[in-house]
Amino acid sequence: MRLPELATQMALRTGSIFLVKVIGFFARIVLFRMLGSEGIGLYQMAYSVYALILTVIVGGFPTAIFLSTARDRKLGWQLFKGTAIFLALFGIVLGFYCYRLASPISLLLGDPHLEFALQCIAPAIAIVPFLSLLRGYLQAMEFNSYIAVSEIIEQLFRIAVMITITTAWLRFGVPYAVGASMLGAPAGAFAALCFLLIILVVSTFRKLDFSFKTPAWRQLKNPGVFWFILTAISILATRLIVPTSDFLDAILIPNRLQAAGMSASDAISVYGIITGMATTIAYMPSFVTFALIYTLSTKFTTDWQAGRKDRFAQRTKAAMNVVWLWGCGSALVLFFYAGDLSNLLFSNSLAETSIRYMSLVPLLSGIRELSMIALWGIGERKYLSLG
Q1: Are 315 and 303 in contact (CB under 8 A)?
Q2: Residue-averaged pLDDT of the chain
């Protein structure tokens, strides 16, 4: 790929991710001012359940589908169709059980007020898995413009629904307002999914030949299918750690704070300050490195498969230099200006200490993601699971 084309895609992805992050960042600030620290704590506790269930459903399928499609487009299309049916059905089933079991889950988290929020997030569990898979497939086809627009559409719909309904339901109490804020996720995902499906039907099918006459059952014998499944499972093993940790934090942190003498309300407020306020600021600089990695992920795979190892090494080295420079600079800003950032965005200094502890997040997360994509590109999956 020529440098101008790569630069264009990089600019497109960076611009879209920057816009999405900025919209979400300021929406989170508005939400914090509406719900307060206790409301944000409840929001984060409910979201930890959603993130864990979503990770279990989606796993590494989006990444695996774009890697498989980058290797073989016809096989990638067959894998996409089969996986889409599986994720759609699995998502609907788990979304249903999340709604029905909202009360026991809320008791497990230690706060029955979470029941309504868990019920409101259930529709997103049915929609987002298929949306993530579709984006992974379109990424392999290098339709970055469509993906960028869909992300902006999703964020705009999510924020609009979240702010509107939360404002209307505040008079019913914080638990209902938190549930209202959860409704933005399924609304945004549904809008983005409709957009991408229209694009896929109207544009993609006309430009690409997806005919494949080999019977579907014979495709199961293709080595690429087993590579796809192994890749998805391996990525799931690496990505399951963070949401599982967040879910356990949502259970343990408020409970231990209450055991130390805090009231339930104060314990949830402290949890909201740590996970809702400080984390939001700490991860904000990561949009640059994530955009770079997202753009180069397909290029790494295609360069290695085509035997262009020198180009692969050059791109990896250049990307790592960007990650180091941006990560170190962001860490210094977060560490020395933590108090100013907390006062500026939340009108208090409650998150100052937590921000300082998280100042290395942009650097470490960027190195982790870039290393993971580079290793997947060369087929070294075992090291990721070990890491």
Answers
A1: yes
A2: 83
Closest among 224, 204, 228 to 214, alpha carbons compared:
224
pTM metric for this prediction: 0.79
Mean pLDDT of 141-166: 89
The pLDDT, as a whole number, for residue 216 is 45
How many Å apart are CA 364 and CA 373, to the nearest integer?
14
pLDDT (tens digit per residue) in 18-77: 788 788 888 888 888 888 888 999 999 999 999 999 998 888 888 888 878 877 778 888
Q: How confident is the model at residue 217 (pLDDT cuts 50, 70, 90)?
A: very low
| Integer CA distances (angstroms), 368 to 116, 249, 384, in order | 36, 22, 10
pLDDT digits (tens, 9 = 90+) for 42-54: 999 999 999 999 9
Per-residue pLDDT at 176 exceeds 50: yes
